[in-house]
Design brief:
With 271 residues, the chain is an alpha+beta fold. It is built from ten helices and seven strands. Helix 6 crosses helix 10.
Amino acid sequence: MFRSLSAGLAVALALSGPVFAQDDPVVAIVDGTEFRLSELQQSYLELPEQFRQMPMEAIFQPLVDRLIDGHLLLQAAEEADVAADPEVQAAIDRARDDVLRQTLIERAVSDATDEAALQAAYEELKAEPDFAIEQVTARHILVETEEAALEVIAELDDGADFAELARERSTDPAASRGGELGTFRRGSMVPPFEAAAFALEPGSYSSEPVQTQFGFHVIFVEDKAAIEPSFAEVEEQLRADLTRQAVESLLADVRAGADVQRFAIDGSAAE
């Protein structure tokens, strides 16, 4: 992940000015040891978020100082034989273990979430019967009482125009638009309203008042359709699902055949 981010940043910086004309130029030399732009990029990526919001050019010199100071501190630590301290060595071992574990997971996830895998997962999702999302285009008239809603329905039964009646009778802000709500998908309206709207056929209105916390509604459905989400709409969820599956599969693989014994918190045999 870091390598790909660094590569992208290197391209961007290479196009930003002559100082980055080389692919990976030397940015500092300390006691004969060269430090290159790629190492500076890595240091940049490890900064807190507020600093990474700035272009790397803006903090170029502080980053170089960070590289130099880090190298000099490492040299001093090695000369002082800091690694000989058992606690320090244990910390180094833990850090090494963390890197190895994380790298194994990242590789498994990377393989499982490449473009081909995501596209295959999308095609598989499309084959599911509930993949398409229902949506309706509707209008409504909102009134305060059930009696008023029944009066609206009676007027509609007598041939009144829904949009005109909405302008005259509805207390909803959409009244000025003839009660127009536009197109909405399942899950975007309060449950009683949604259930009634999706139960209606295009060109029909509710024969009974629909009560919600806002009052009593009379709903008119203009159109109904089932729309398949695009790849872009579901890509993030697909990536999350494939990532979870990859990690679960990896854990199942490493656990398979392992001789694992568990104990209670006091060291006694676990139940």
